[in-house]
Amino acid sequence: MDFNYPPETEAFREEIRAFLREAVTPEYLEEQRTMMVDRDGHGPATQRFVDALRERGYLTLHWPKEYGGQGRPVFEQAVFAEEMARAGASTYIVGSVGLNMVAPALMHYGSEQQKKEILPKIASGEINFCQMFTEPEAGSDLASLRTTAIRDGDEYVVNGTKVFITWAFHANYGYLLARTDPEAPKHRGLSLFMLDMKSPGVEIHPLSLIDGGRHGLIYLENVRIPRANLIGEENRGWYHAAITLDFERAGIGAVTRNEEDIKRLIAYARTTERNGQRLSADPEIRKGLLIAYRDSRITRALAMRVLDIQGHGRVANSEASELSLHSRLATGRTSETKALVYGMYGQLFQDTPYAVEDGDGVQSWWRLAGRHAAGTIEIQKNIIAQRGLGMPR
Length: 393
Ligand SMILES: Cc1cc2nc3c(=O)[nH]c(=O)nc-3n(C[C@H](O)[C@H](O)[C@H](O)COP(=O)(O)OP(=O)(O)OC[C@H]3O[C@@H](n4cnc5c(N)ncnc54)[C@H](O)[C@@H]3O)c2cc1C
Description:
Elements: H1 10-23, H2 26-34, H3 37-40, H4 44-55, H5 74-86, H6 96-109, H7 112-124, E1 129-132, E2 148-152, E3 155-165, E4 173-179, E5 190-196, E6 202-208, E7 214-226, E8 230-231, H8 237-241, H9 252-271, E9 273-274, E10 277-278, H10 283-311, H11 318-342, H12 360-367, H13 377-388
Helix pairs in contact: 1-5, 2-4, 5-9, 6-7, 9-10, 9-11, 10-11, 11-12, 11-13
The chain binds flavin-adenine dinucleotide (FAD).
């Protein structure tokens, strides 16, 4: 495996850098600093930035050309994510579920009519999805979900509850996983749908998480979905949903963001004194900073391994879980070090008097909420044990 990017990606890196120099404005960075996109949506500067990304095809870099994408190789997609992170920009935007999750499933399993109609609307931002999978009794064990979608002529009638739904307040469609065959074994009776969020019987309640994000608790009562909105085959939804894994790109943007974060933390500790002593001279802090630095190097190595696998056209499975597990544990350790570095003032929110490093300490704790999404730490361990090491369930 190669730890470097192929040399031919460098021209593309230059193109992205030139674009970002123009497009990342102080107004955009201020919105990124103070707003939370899943709570507030896009501010005007963020909207302008997202439009510029869209115009240049950067939001559909990973889509094949035949579907209107750029068909860029895996390494160029990674370079894009890396440069975005370095510039303080983000593709965590309203619409990312459609672009990264629903579109791949449609390309593989959608009807010709759906591909023709829906893919261009996802690309243009006219259709934005939220992912409606988790339920109060089905999170890690998703296949045991209870929301039913029962056929009634040319429609399905849906009843159930979905919880923790990011973008619930900004999406016009839900990417819904529901049980269409209650008699079948649990993985086999599920189907995927496009749900118009304005349909009668859809009730969305706000659910605020510790990080300030606003998610949705969604009740579905006798909601009617036209049969044409079934994605792929009936009762094959579980397997269709898995296809999005092929499109995951090692989260290299997050790796770079983390590296920049640790650089700033080390610089702060080297230049700040407490009780007449430089913070970086404190043995506990030194140890924490070394661990944070070491963790960031390991995270990059694991991410490059996943990229290498994907670059060779294979699907990273337990390797992706190793990366995910390590980076989730590392963010916890770094947050503990930040508590030592920032001291008592580290508990103050950004924009309050005496806040340190723009409230970075408290924000780091909040962000740990994200460690639960897309498979918890224990679930990643189970995947590594079973699929990576061949241990029994
Ligand atoms: C920030 C955030 C955003 C989210 N966005 C969405 C979204 O947009 N759409 C959506 O559908 N869902 C979303 N979720 C939900 C997320 O997918 C679930 O929280 C996650 O799958 C875990 O499910 P749970 O919360 O029900 O926890 P549970 O599955 O109940 O787990 C509780 C604890 O038990 C452990 N555990 C569970 N099973 C096992 C096992 N077999 N072995 C060992 N330990 C186990 C877990 O690791 C965890 O510590 C989001 C969650 C968060 C935090």
